[in-house]
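Table 4 source record.
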Amino acid sequence: MKNFNKNKTERVEVMALFGYEMTPCQPLTFRRRGQKETEVTELLRTRIHFAGQATLHIFDVLVGREKMTLEFNSCDLSWHLTQ
């Protein structure tokens, strides 16, 4: 059986604004390994997912016209990008 999930996940560095108005965290830019910084155009939605000891803070964002998801893992303090 083929895997139809074409989402690619990669670890990224994120510049985020914490404690801003009604949004406790807002990703502003991210950088992939070996690439330039990419600006987040719009924050679409945020949600939280509890996974064992970790809490995943999930941000659906627009980069230009492309929808992406940034995830922050509260346990190891890492950010991941899913396209």
